[in-house]
Amino acid sequence: MKVAIIGSTHAGVFAAKEVLAQNPNAEVHIYEKNDTVSFLSCGIALWVGNHVSSPDRMFYESPESLAKQGLHVHMHTLVEKADLADKTLTIKDLQSGEQTEENFDKIVITTGSKAVKPNLPGIDSDKVYLAKNWDDANALKKVSEDIKSAIVIGAGYIGAELAEQLSVNDKQVTLIDALDRVLANNTDETYSDVFANAYQEHGVELALGQRVERFEESDQGITVTTDKGSYTADIAILSIGFVPNTSLFEGQVDMLADGAIVTDQYMQTNFADVFAAGDASTVFYNPTQEHDYIPLATNAVRQGILVGRNIVKPTVAYQGTQATSAVELYGLAYASTGLNQASAAKKGVKTQTVTIQEDYRPNFMLTTDKVTASLTWEVETRRIVGGAFLSKHDISQAANVVSLAIENKMTIDQLAMTDFFFQPNFDQPINYISSVAIAAASQA
User: Fold this and answer.
1) C-beta neighbour count of 137 within 10 angstroms
2) 3-state secondary structure of 91
3) What is the pLDDT of residue 444?
4) How many CB atoms lie within 10 A of CB 348?
5) What is the DSSP code string of 16-46?
6) How big, in percent rounded to 5, are the helix, strand and coil portions of the chain?
7) pLDDT tens digits, one per residue of 181-202
8) DSSP-derived 3-state class of residue 406
9) How far, in Å, CA of 315 to CA of 367, rounded?
10) What values do phi and psi take at 300, rounded to 5?
11) What is the β-pairing status of strands 212-218 and 106-109?
């Protein structure tokens, strides 16, 4: 069996390794246009902020390590054309310029995503940076050591983290977003207001509800003009989201409007023996029970593994995702899963949400911290569809608990009566997860 893996980020790497693990005699070829594999891009802000022990540790595999495992690794190699019906790829060696055509028994599309970069005047300036891949990370790390100010465009997780790390490293930061709240697509107002206050306390200028119109270089650096004002800094960083990098396959495989490739529960496209995974593909989003586009490394890893397990025949079905995620800003930990009331409304899901605040452990302890907890459920069925937690205490695993509840279609009533331990070092007699579920069951 001859298999082509197009792209070697998380989904590609895990797919290649699992294909070979399940089929030791397979001939597995990885095609990657860049010179690195498996870059942990979620660590870019941490590296810029000097929290990474070594940049080498931001990769969990290398071309050499993959080759030692028996994979055929082709770096600096671009797949220029793909005929998925015939399973034929036209491949170009970017160093020699040589072009070849290869046939395969199976093709796996793991081409990932690309940063959104709108066609605005001046956006191609050398003073406008992206935060997506290893080259972007290198460029940002190098320039961040010398600058005194920065404009971050996009207040989602990546932009939020970059703005925070730059500000705590004594840079003057302006954070711009077209929406009227920070982390507006990740949180509801209860939580975004807390982070907005934290930014302002650390000197970050918030320019929210503003759309960028153009960029202009000047002796002072770069000026970003929005529909409501102008802001000048040494550099600007663009972090307004990602879209599937799938234009090579348009007109062949089924896609959503944004280009995400639709797969079945075994990661197969509408073409026999052609699979897709990771940021190039859809996920099955359990809170809505529909296909969606949610580019997260956790989704990519699991989908890649499933490709390997299903490459010969449908064997292990995809369990879907809750898009569980977390961020830490200025010592405040936020973790969430599934929908909140605002995102549910956009998806057409009728929900209710309850929010509580309490100490995470008994106040007879010498120290404790407040936890804010929210739970969102579908009105008609009482099925849990989302949860969120915020505290100076590490509450990250609470989101994983609610994620598991969503995947298993638990109701607020069931979660309210689920057994959680009590020990004063760790929690209250009624754990805050139980507390918010009890509050939800009482309110519904």
Assistant:
1) 24
2) strand
3) 82
4) 8
5) HHHHHHH-TT-EEEEE-SSS--SB-GGGHHH
6) 30, 30, 40
7) 999 999 999 999 999 999 999 9
8) helix
9) 50
10) -60, -45
11) unpaired
Confidence category of residue 12, pLDDT binned at 50, 70, 90: very high
Active site residues: 10, 42
Which tens digits make up the pLDDT trace of 44-101?
A: 999 999 999 999 999 999 999 999 999 999 999 999 999 999 999 999 999 999 999 9
Tokens of 236: 């600007």
Element (H, E) at 251: none
- pTM of the predicted model as reported, rounded to 2 decimal places: 0.95
CA pair distance 351, 5, nearest whole angstrom: 41
**221-242 mean pLDDT:** 97
The rounded mean pLDDT for the chain is 97
Amino acid at 367: T
Q: How far is CA 22 from the centre of its chain?
A: 28
Burial of 265 by CB count in 10 Å (0-12 exposed, 13-18 middle, 19+ buried)?
middle
Spatial distance between the Cα atoms of 101 and 115, rounded to a whole number of angstroms: 29
Question: Which among 75, 97, 93 is positioned nearest to 5, based on CA atoms?
Answer: 75
pLDDT tens profile 377-403 = 999 999 999 999 999 999 999 999 999
What share of the chain has pLDDT > 90, as a percent?
A: 99
DSSP 8-state symbol, 392: S
pLDDT of 379 reads: 97
Residue 161: how many other CB atoms lie within 10 Å: 23
Q: Which residues pair with 150 in a beta bridge?
A: 173, 235
pLDDT average, residue stretch 132-150: 96
Cα-based distances in Å from 101 to 66, 91, 183: 23, 6, 45
Spell out a b/e string for 275-307, using b for 16 or more CB atoms within 10 Å of the CB, else e: bbbbbbbbbbbbbbeebbbebbbebbbbbbbbb
- At 388, give phi and psi (nearest 5°): -150, 150
3-state secondary structure of 250: coil
**Beta partners for 262?**
none
Cβ neighbors of 97 (< 8 A, separation 6 or more) are: none
Q: Specify the pLDDT at position 218.
A: 87
Query: What secondary structure letter does DSSP report for 72?
Result: E
pLDDT band at 219 (very low <50, low <70, confident <90, very high): confident
DSSP states of 334-385: EEEEE--HHHHHHHT--EEEEEEEEESS-TTSS---EEEEEEEEETTT-BEE
